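>> received
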Amino acid sequence: FMTKLGCNPALSNITKEIFRVLKPGGIFALSCEALERVERLSPEAQPEYALQETRRFAHSLSYIKRICCEESSFELLKLQRNVTLRRQKGKAVKGHLFCFFKPS
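>> returned
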């Protein structure tokens, strides 16, 4: 079950559906562009996602963990932070790689 998630910043419904159709013991992988912290905002006021210059959405780590683990009941198996997801116009686009597990 694969989908391009970049078109929808609110991923909760998508991750819940993936959890529903995935067999117990199944693995779900997700990559997202890294959302940089806004210095002038307090931790509580930080955005969960934002549209970037790349015309793709970036998501905070806490948002992805919340919608996948708390709202969709996945378990986080592995997280790689600040990896180069791709190169765009000669620049590295940084993001995070997640691997989630559906418990039995």
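>> Residues 1-7 have pLDDT under 50 and may be disordered.
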